[in-house]
Design goal:
It contains 19 helices and six strands. With about 425 residues, the protein is α+β, with helices and mostly antiparallel strands. The chain has three domains: about 100 residues, no CATH class; about 120 residues, Orthogonal Bundle (DNA polymerase, domain 1); about 160 residues, Intergrase catalytic core (hpI Integrase, Chain A, Orthogonal Bundle). Helix 16 packs across helix 19. The radius of gyration is 41 Å and the shape is rod-shaped.
Amino acid sequence: MKAKRRRFPIVVKRGSSVVKIYRDRKPTGTYYRVAYHIGGKRHRLHHNDLEKAIAEAEAKAAQLSRGDVDAMQLFGKDRLVYGRAVEAVREHGVALDAAALEYSEARKILDGVGLVDAVRFYARHHGRDIKRKAVADAVREMIEAKKSDGVSDVYLNDLRYRLGAFADCFQCDLVSLTPDDVRSFFDSIKLGARSFNNFLRALKTFCRFAQDRGWLSKEADLLGSVKRRKDRSTPVEILTPQEMAALLEHSTPQIAPCFALGAFAGLRSEEILRLEWADVTRRPGFIEVAAHKAKTATRRLVPITDNLARWLIPSRSDDGLVWQNTKAMFFKIRLRVAAQAGITWKQNVLRHSFISYRLAEVQDINQVALEAGNSPQMIFRYYRELATPAQARTWFAIAPEGAPNVVPITVVRGKR
Protein backbone atom coordinates (compact mmCIF):
# COMPACT_ATOMS: atom_id res chain seq x y z
CA MET A 1 0.00 0.00 0.00
CA LYS A 2 1.41 3.36 -1.03
CA ALA A 3 2.02 5.96 1.69
CA LYS A 4 -0.24 8.99 1.53
CA ARG A 5 1.33 11.74 -0.48
CA ARG A 6 1.69 15.04 1.37
CA ARG A 7 1.31 18.43 -0.23
CA PHE A 8 3.58 21.25 0.88
CA PRO A 9 3.50 23.56 2.59
CA ILE A 10 1.78 21.65 5.39
CA VAL A 11 -0.40 24.03 7.40
CA VAL A 12 -0.92 23.50 11.16
CA LYS A 13 -3.64 25.62 12.81
CA ARG A 14 -4.55 26.23 16.46
CA GLY A 15 -7.27 28.81 16.71
CA SER A 16 -6.15 31.80 14.66
CA SER A 17 -2.50 30.81 14.87
CA VAL A 18 -0.86 29.26 11.83
CA VAL A 19 2.45 27.42 11.44
CA LYS A 20 3.67 26.14 8.05
CA ILE A 21 6.08 23.37 7.10
CA TYR A 22 8.07 23.72 3.87
CA ARG A 23 10.13 21.07 2.10
CA ASP A 24 13.58 21.78 0.69
CA ARG A 25 15.36 19.28 -1.53
CA LYS A 26 19.12 19.67 -1.73
CA PRO A 27 22.00 17.49 -2.93
CA THR A 28 22.75 16.68 0.70
CA GLY A 29 19.19 15.56 1.42
CA THR A 30 15.65 16.72 2.13
CA TYR A 31 15.00 19.29 4.89
CA TYR A 32 11.80 20.67 6.42
CA ARG A 33 11.37 24.28 7.53
CA VAL A 34 8.89 25.12 10.31
CA ALA A 35 7.90 28.77 9.78
CA TYR A 36 5.79 31.11 11.93
CA HIS A 37 5.50 34.83 12.73
CA ILE A 38 5.86 36.63 16.05
CA GLY A 39 5.30 40.39 16.14
CA GLY A 40 5.61 40.67 12.39
CA LYS A 41 8.92 38.87 12.32
CA ARG A 42 9.32 35.53 10.60
CA HIS A 43 10.97 32.63 12.51
CA ARG A 44 12.19 29.37 11.03
CA LEU A 45 13.33 26.04 12.47
CA HIS A 46 14.94 23.26 10.39
CA HIS A 47 14.50 19.48 10.75
CA ASN A 48 15.64 16.60 8.57
CA ASP A 49 12.76 14.41 9.81
CA LEU A 50 9.19 15.18 8.76
CA GLU A 51 7.53 13.70 11.85
CA LYS A 52 9.71 15.83 14.14
CA ALA A 53 8.90 18.88 12.04
CA ILE A 54 5.17 18.21 12.36
CA ALA A 55 5.46 17.76 16.15
CA GLU A 56 7.41 21.03 16.34
CA ALA A 57 4.80 22.84 14.27
CA GLU A 58 1.94 21.59 16.44
CA ALA A 59 3.76 22.68 19.61
CA LYS A 60 4.46 26.15 18.16
CA ALA A 61 0.87 26.55 17.05
CA ALA A 62 -0.38 25.62 20.53
CA GLN A 63 2.01 28.08 22.16
CA LEU A 64 1.00 30.86 19.80
CA SER A 65 -2.66 30.25 20.52
CA ARG A 66 -2.00 30.47 24.30
CA GLY A 67 0.05 33.62 23.95
CA ASP A 68 3.32 32.04 25.14
CA VAL A 69 5.36 34.43 23.06
CA ASP A 70 8.41 34.30 25.35
CA ALA A 71 8.56 30.53 25.06
CA MET A 72 8.43 30.83 21.26
CA GLN A 73 11.69 32.73 21.30
CA LEU A 74 13.52 30.07 23.29
CA PHE A 75 15.34 27.20 21.66
CA GLY A 76 16.50 23.73 22.55
CA LYS A 77 16.64 22.81 26.26
CA ASP A 78 15.57 26.28 27.40
CA ARG A 79 12.33 25.99 25.46
CA LEU A 80 11.60 22.59 27.02
CA VAL A 81 12.30 23.85 30.56
CA TYR A 82 10.11 26.90 30.06
CA GLY A 83 7.23 24.85 28.75
CA ARG A 84 7.33 22.45 31.69
CA ALA A 85 7.47 25.32 34.18
CA VAL A 86 4.45 27.05 32.67
CA GLU A 87 2.43 23.83 32.75
CA ALA A 88 3.43 23.17 36.37
CA VAL A 89 2.08 26.49 37.70
CA ARG A 90 -0.90 26.82 35.38
CA GLU A 91 -3.34 24.86 37.63
CA HIS A 92 -2.54 27.13 40.58
CA GLY A 93 -3.23 30.36 38.73
CA VAL A 94 0.20 31.75 39.61
CA ALA A 95 2.41 33.63 37.18
CA LEU A 96 5.69 31.89 36.45
CA ASP A 97 7.82 34.78 37.66
CA ALA A 98 5.83 35.05 40.92
CA ALA A 99 6.28 31.33 41.53
CA ALA A 100 10.03 31.62 40.90
CA LEU A 101 10.39 34.55 43.32
CA GLU A 102 8.44 32.73 46.04
CA TYR A 103 10.54 29.62 45.56
CA SER A 104 13.77 31.61 45.79
CA GLU A 105 12.70 33.31 49.03
CA ALA A 106 11.64 29.98 50.54
CA ARG A 107 15.01 28.40 49.74
CA LYS A 108 16.81 31.28 51.45
CA ILE A 109 14.75 30.80 54.62
CA LEU A 110 15.18 27.02 54.62
CA ASP A 111 18.95 27.36 54.31
CA GLY A 112 19.56 24.16 52.38
CA VAL A 113 16.52 22.15 53.48
CA GLY A 114 14.49 20.89 50.53
CA LEU A 115 11.31 22.89 49.91
CA VAL A 116 9.18 19.78 49.37
CA ASP A 117 10.49 18.25 52.61
CA ALA A 118 9.64 21.45 54.46
CA VAL A 119 6.15 21.55 53.00
CA ARG A 120 5.51 17.93 53.91
CA PHE A 121 6.69 18.62 57.46
CA TYR A 122 4.37 21.61 57.68
CA ALA A 123 1.44 19.59 56.34
CA ARG A 124 2.00 16.90 58.98
CA HIS A 125 2.28 19.32 61.88
CA HIS A 126 -0.01 22.16 60.78
CA GLY A 127 -2.34 20.35 58.39
CA ARG A 128 -6.08 20.54 58.24
CA ASP A 129 -6.44 17.79 60.87
CA ILE A 130 -4.49 19.77 63.49
CA LYS A 131 -6.60 22.16 65.57
CA ARG A 132 -5.00 25.36 66.81
CA LYS A 133 -4.99 25.55 70.59
CA ALA A 134 -3.19 28.02 72.86
CA VAL A 135 -0.74 26.41 75.27
CA ALA A 136 -2.51 27.93 78.30
CA ASP A 137 -5.91 26.65 77.14
CA ALA A 138 -4.48 23.18 76.48
CA VAL A 139 -2.98 23.08 79.99
CA ARG A 140 -6.28 24.15 81.53
CA GLU A 141 -8.25 21.49 79.64
CA MET A 142 -5.77 18.76 80.56
CA ILE A 143 -5.98 19.60 84.26
CA GLU A 144 -9.79 19.57 84.09
CA ALA A 145 -9.69 16.20 82.33
CA LYS A 146 -7.34 14.75 84.96
CA LYS A 147 -9.56 16.12 87.70
CA SER A 148 -12.56 14.37 86.12
CA ASP A 149 -10.51 11.16 86.05
CA GLY A 150 -10.27 11.34 89.83
CA VAL A 151 -6.50 11.80 90.24
CA SER A 152 -5.22 13.02 93.59
CA ASP A 153 -5.08 16.67 94.60
CA VAL A 154 -1.34 16.28 95.06
CA TYR A 155 -0.95 15.23 91.42
CA LEU A 156 -3.21 18.04 90.22
CA ASN A 157 -1.22 20.62 92.16
CA ASP A 158 1.99 19.24 90.72
CA LEU A 159 0.57 19.57 87.18
CA ARG A 160 -0.65 23.11 87.87
CA TYR A 161 2.81 24.10 89.06
CA ARG A 162 4.88 22.51 86.28
CA LEU A 163 2.55 23.01 83.32
CA GLY A 164 1.65 26.46 84.58
CA ALA A 165 5.32 27.46 84.35
CA PHE A 166 5.40 26.07 80.80
CA ALA A 167 2.25 27.97 79.79
CA ASP A 168 3.60 31.21 81.26
CA CYS A 169 6.71 30.82 79.12
CA PHE A 170 4.84 30.21 75.85
CA GLN A 171 1.99 32.58 75.07
CA CYS A 172 1.27 30.96 71.71
CA ASP A 173 -0.42 28.02 70.00
CA LEU A 174 0.95 24.53 70.52
CA VAL A 175 1.59 24.05 66.80
CA SER A 176 3.93 27.05 66.85
CA LEU A 177 6.35 25.34 69.25
CA THR A 178 9.56 23.74 68.02
CA PRO A 179 11.93 21.30 69.76
CA ASP A 180 14.42 24.17 70.10
CA ASP A 181 11.82 26.23 71.99
CA VAL A 182 11.17 23.45 74.47
CA ARG A 183 14.87 22.68 74.93
CA SER A 184 15.49 26.36 75.69
CA PHE A 185 12.74 26.23 78.32
CA PHE A 186 14.42 23.31 80.06
CA ASP A 187 17.79 25.05 79.83
CA SER A 188 16.27 28.05 81.62
CA ILE A 189 14.91 26.19 84.66
CA LYS A 190 17.61 25.77 87.26
CA LEU A 191 16.60 22.57 89.03
CA GLY A 192 18.19 19.49 90.46
CA ALA A 193 18.06 16.23 88.55
CA ARG A 194 14.94 14.88 90.28
CA SER A 195 12.89 18.06 89.86
CA PHE A 196 14.11 18.39 86.27
CA ASN A 197 13.00 14.84 85.50
CA ASN A 198 9.64 15.49 87.16
CA PHE A 199 9.17 18.48 84.84
CA LEU A 200 10.09 16.31 81.87
CA ARG A 201 7.61 13.61 82.88
CA ALA A 202 4.80 16.16 83.26
CA LEU A 203 5.55 17.66 79.83
CA LYS A 204 5.56 14.20 78.21
CA THR A 205 2.13 13.53 79.67
CA PHE A 206 0.95 16.91 78.40
CA CYS A 207 2.24 16.29 74.86
CA ARG A 208 0.52 12.90 74.68
CA PHE A 209 -2.72 14.50 75.84
CA ALA A 210 -2.39 17.25 73.20
CA GLN A 211 -1.75 14.67 70.48
CA ASP A 212 -4.81 12.66 71.50
CA ARG A 213 -6.92 15.82 71.27
CA GLY A 214 -5.58 16.74 67.83
CA TRP A 215 -3.78 19.89 68.99
CA LEU A 216 -0.36 18.47 68.20
CA SER A 217 0.76 16.18 65.41
CA LYS A 218 1.32 12.53 66.30
CA GLU A 219 4.72 12.90 64.67
CA ALA A 220 5.69 15.96 66.68
CA ASP A 221 8.52 15.21 69.11
CA LEU A 222 8.96 18.44 71.03
CA LEU A 223 10.89 16.69 73.79
CA GLY A 224 13.17 14.63 71.56
CA SER A 225 16.28 16.65 72.39
CA VAL A 226 15.55 16.91 76.14
CA LYS A 227 17.21 14.05 78.01
CA ARG A 228 16.64 12.85 81.54
CA ARG A 229 19.31 13.88 83.97
CA LYS A 230 21.19 11.35 86.02
CA ASP A 231 20.08 11.70 89.60
CA ARG A 232 23.20 12.27 91.64
CA SER A 233 21.28 12.74 94.87
CA THR A 234 23.17 13.64 98.00
CA PRO A 235 23.20 10.96 100.70
CA VAL A 236 20.04 10.78 102.80
CA GLU A 237 20.41 12.64 106.10
CA ILE A 238 18.53 11.53 109.19
CA LEU A 239 18.15 12.79 112.74
CA THR A 240 19.66 10.99 115.68
CA PRO A 241 17.28 9.89 118.46
CA GLN A 242 18.77 12.64 120.64
CA GLU A 243 18.03 15.31 117.99
CA MET A 244 14.48 14.04 117.58
CA ALA A 245 13.93 14.15 121.32
CA ALA A 246 15.20 17.75 121.39
CA LEU A 247 12.90 18.69 118.51
CA LEU A 248 9.84 17.32 120.29
CA GLU A 249 10.93 18.88 123.59
CA HIS A 250 10.78 22.35 122.00
CA SER A 251 7.56 21.68 120.09
CA THR A 252 4.25 23.37 120.73
CA PRO A 253 1.25 21.13 121.51
CA GLN A 254 -0.08 21.90 118.01
CA ILE A 255 3.05 20.97 116.05
CA ALA A 256 4.18 17.99 118.17
CA PRO A 257 1.67 15.49 116.68
CA CYS A 258 2.75 16.59 113.20
CA PHE A 259 6.42 16.00 114.01
CA ALA A 260 5.49 12.60 115.42
CA LEU A 261 3.52 11.65 112.29
CA GLY A 262 6.54 12.44 110.15
CA ALA A 263 9.12 10.79 112.41
CA PHE A 264 7.23 7.68 113.54
CA ALA A 265 4.84 7.07 110.59
CA GLY A 266 6.81 8.54 107.68
CA LEU A 267 4.02 10.81 106.44
CA ARG A 268 5.02 13.51 103.98
CA SER A 269 4.40 17.15 104.90
CA GLU A 270 1.56 17.49 102.38
CA GLU A 271 -0.02 14.28 103.68
CA ILE A 272 0.13 15.58 107.25
CA LEU A 273 -1.52 18.83 106.20
CA ARG A 274 -4.40 16.87 104.65
CA LEU A 275 -4.72 14.29 107.42
CA GLU A 276 -7.92 14.23 109.47
CA TRP A 277 -8.38 12.69 112.91
CA ALA A 278 -10.86 10.28 111.36
CA ASP A 279 -7.96 8.88 109.29
CA VAL A 280 -6.19 8.09 112.58
CA THR A 281 -9.11 6.45 114.38
CA ARG A 282 -11.00 4.77 111.52
CA ARG A 283 -8.87 1.61 111.50
CA PRO A 284 -7.58 0.62 114.94
CA GLY A 285 -3.82 0.38 114.97
CA PHE A 286 -3.32 2.10 111.61
CA ILE A 287 -3.34 5.51 109.96
CA GLU A 288 -5.20 5.45 106.67
CA VAL A 289 -3.64 7.70 104.02
CA ALA A 290 -6.35 7.97 101.37
CA ALA A 291 -5.38 7.97 97.69
CA HIS A 292 -6.49 11.57 97.15
CA LYS A 293 -4.29 12.69 100.05
CA ALA A 294 -1.18 10.71 99.07
CA LYS A 295 1.53 12.00 96.75
CA THR A 296 1.49 8.79 94.75
CA ALA A 297 -2.34 8.73 94.54
CA THR A 298 -2.24 5.28 96.16
CA ARG A 299 -4.00 4.43 99.40
CA ARG A 300 -1.85 2.96 102.15
CA LEU A 301 -2.05 1.94 105.80
CA VAL A 302 0.69 2.96 108.23
CA PRO A 303 0.96 1.21 111.61
CA ILE A 304 0.63 3.32 114.74
CA THR A 305 3.60 2.44 116.91
CA ASP A 306 3.39 2.67 120.70
CA ASN A 307 5.32 5.93 120.99
CA LEU A 308 3.39 7.54 118.11
CA ALA A 309 0.10 6.77 119.86
CA ARG A 310 1.37 8.58 122.97
CA TRP A 311 2.20 11.69 120.96
CA LEU A 312 -1.21 11.69 119.29
CA ILE A 313 -3.38 11.14 122.39
CA PRO A 314 -3.05 14.64 123.96
CA SER A 315 -4.29 16.37 120.80
CA ARG A 316 -6.69 13.71 119.58
CA SER A 317 -10.08 14.87 118.35
CA ASP A 318 -13.11 13.10 116.93
CA ASP A 319 -13.07 15.06 113.70
CA GLY A 320 -11.35 17.86 111.80
CA LEU A 321 -7.80 18.22 110.53
CA VAL A 322 -4.82 17.22 112.62
CA TRP A 323 -3.16 20.54 111.69
CA GLN A 324 -5.77 23.25 111.93
CA ASN A 325 -3.68 26.26 110.93
CA THR A 326 -2.40 27.42 107.53
CA LYS A 327 0.20 25.68 105.43
CA ALA A 328 2.50 28.70 105.68
CA MET A 329 2.25 28.67 109.47
CA PHE A 330 3.07 24.96 109.53
CA PHE A 331 6.39 25.49 107.75
CA LYS A 332 7.15 28.65 109.74
CA ILE A 333 6.65 26.99 113.12
CA ARG A 334 8.55 23.89 112.02
CA LEU A 335 11.64 25.94 111.18
CA ARG A 336 11.37 27.99 114.36
CA VAL A 337 11.18 24.91 116.58
CA ALA A 338 14.13 23.31 114.76
CA ALA A 339 16.19 26.44 115.36
CA GLN A 340 15.28 26.46 119.06
CA ALA A 341 16.35 22.82 119.29
CA GLY A 342 19.67 23.61 117.59
CA ILE A 343 18.86 21.53 114.52
CA THR A 344 19.54 22.56 110.92
CA TRP A 345 16.36 21.54 109.13
CA LYS A 346 16.76 19.31 106.07
CA GLN A 347 14.01 18.66 103.56
CA ASN A 348 12.08 15.46 104.34
CA VAL A 349 14.36 14.73 107.28
CA LEU A 350 11.57 13.24 109.43
CA ARG A 351 10.37 10.93 106.67
CA HIS A 352 13.95 9.90 105.85
CA SER A 353 14.52 9.15 109.50
CA PHE A 354 11.37 7.05 109.83
CA ILE A 355 12.18 4.91 106.79
CA SER A 356 15.77 4.37 107.92
CA TYR A 357 14.89 3.39 111.49
CA ARG A 358 11.84 1.36 110.47
CA LEU A 359 13.94 -0.65 108.01
CA ALA A 360 16.54 -1.27 110.72
CA GLU A 361 13.75 -2.41 113.07
CA VAL A 362 11.74 -4.79 110.85
CA GLN A 363 14.46 -5.79 108.33
CA ASP A 364 11.84 -6.01 105.56
CA ILE A 365 12.24 -3.71 102.55
CA ASN A 366 8.85 -4.59 101.04
CA GLN A 367 7.00 -3.90 104.27
CA VAL A 368 8.66 -0.52 104.72
CA ALA A 369 7.97 0.34 101.06
CA LEU A 370 4.25 -0.32 101.61
CA GLU A 371 4.16 1.72 104.81
CA ALA A 372 6.10 4.64 103.32
CA GLY A 373 4.31 4.65 99.95
CA ASN A 374 7.56 4.20 98.07
CA SER A 375 9.14 1.56 95.84
CA PRO A 376 11.31 -1.23 97.26
CA GLN A 377 14.05 -0.14 94.85
CA MET A 378 14.12 3.35 96.34
CA ILE A 379 14.14 1.96 99.88
CA PHE A 380 17.06 -0.35 99.08
CA ARG A 381 18.98 2.34 97.22
CA TYR A 382 18.75 5.19 99.72
CA TYR A 383 17.88 3.86 103.19
CA ARG A 384 19.62 0.54 103.68
CA GLU A 385 22.09 0.36 106.60
CA LEU A 386 21.68 3.97 107.71
CA ALA A 387 20.72 2.89 111.22
CA THR A 388 21.24 -0.09 113.50
CA PRO A 389 18.50 -2.11 115.23
CA ALA A 390 19.63 -0.70 118.57
CA GLN A 391 19.26 2.86 117.28
CA ALA A 392 15.85 1.95 115.90
CA ARG A 393 14.70 0.70 119.30
CA THR A 394 15.78 4.00 120.82
CA TRP A 395 14.05 5.98 118.07
CA PHE A 396 10.70 4.27 118.49
CA ALA A 397 10.92 4.59 122.26
CA ILE A 398 10.86 8.40 122.16
CA ALA A 399 7.67 9.37 124.01
CA PRO A 400 6.36 12.40 125.93
CA GLU A 401 7.30 12.54 129.59
CA GLY A 402 4.63 11.27 131.91
CA ALA A 403 2.71 9.65 129.07
CA PRO A 404 0.84 6.53 130.16
CA ASN A 405 2.15 3.19 128.97
CA VAL A 406 -1.34 2.05 127.99
CA VAL A 407 -3.30 4.27 125.61
CA PRO A 408 -6.72 3.87 123.99
CA ILE A 409 -5.30 3.74 120.45
CA THR A 410 -4.38 0.21 119.39
CA VAL A 411 -0.68 0.08 118.56
CA VAL A 412 1.57 -2.16 116.50
CA ARG A 413 5.02 -3.43 117.51
CA GLY A 414 7.53 -4.95 115.12
CA LYS A 415 6.38 -6.82 112.02
CA ARG A 416 2.78 -6.95 110.98
